[in-house]
Amino acid sequence: MLGSKLREVYSDMSDFTLNPLVLIGIGSSFAFSGLFYHLYQNKKQEVDELKKIPSFRPDQHLVKVLKASRHNRLHYAAVEGVVEADAEPLASRFVPRCFGVIQKISLREFWKYWNSVSKSWDIKAVNKKETNNFVPFSLVTHGSYNLDVYVKFQDPREFSSFILETVHHEIRCVEERLGEMVVEGLSGEKPVALEEVEELLRVGSTVTGFGEVVLEGDQVIRLQPPKDGRKYFLTPTDHRGFISQHEGVASLWKTLSAITGITGAAILTGFVYSFFEKNDDRSKKA
């Protein structure tokens, strides 16, 4: 009797036509759910590691911690503070009364090239020139009138990464004259626009640096590349904001994992329900 019942169910399943799109929907939903969950776990682990990094400000508390540490250094820590130039700050070339300690100016030309295959003009960007300037700078405590304690940076080129603020972005179209149009048309290429971008690490902005913290003398503190290979970088936010950004990414992956997983489960439930509903209708007719 059991064998006949199994044969009946198997016969019903063989008669049930499964839409390939349903299979694709179920499989892709669960696959994406697994991928997003994997990304969430990796990001969560990264956030947990970031929270273990000690965070300080350029003040007497940091000096006391360094003096109590072996060799007057912390092998890896985060220091949050306000950017202050150690020398004459860099003036923006485009924005009045705007000063920084790291400056990047890039110029790009956009050219049209005649494509003989498609019989049309293609636009390509050509890097024309990039200028990088910097001055030594330090981090000081926000709102502090006592600048005896500060954290020094010598050469920002040692950073593995840093993000600058775009203070100027302009695209100027190139005006064409009749004679130039004829020459350029014969050569198969012509300039169409020039893009100017200026980026700055501005004086007075709040940043957080990650690296090895060393006390030199009684008050001078330096942030430098770690000797254990960990990243030496600067982020344009306070320490709490930096961790919150990473927590937001982790939350996004977790949410996407849940949505795709629920979607896959809903499609699978709908498929199973349709199968048994069809089987029940056949039993009633029989």
TrEMBL record:
It is a multi-pass membrane protein. InterPro entries: MDM2_MDM4_MUL1, MUL1-like. Keywords: Membrane, Metal-binding, Transferase, Transmembrane, Transmembrane helix, Ubl conjugation pathway, Zinc, Zinc-finger. Its EC number is 2.3.2.27. It catalyses: S-ubiquitinyl-[E2 ubiquitin-conjugating enzyme]-L-cysteine + [acceptor protein]-L-lysine = [E2 ubiquitin-conjugating enzyme]-L-cysteine + N(6)-ubiquitinyl-[acceptor protein]-L-lysine. Residues 130-264 form the E3 Ubiquitin ligase MUL1-like domain. It is found in: Membrane. This is RING-type E3 ubiquitin transferase. It holds the Pfam family GIDE. The chain crosses the membrane at residues 21-40, 252-276. GO terms for molecular function: ubiquitin protein ligase activity; zinc ion binding. GO terms for cellular component: membrane. It comes from Oryzias javanicus (Javanese ricefish). GO terms for biological process: protein ubiquitination. It is an enzyme of class 2 (transferase).
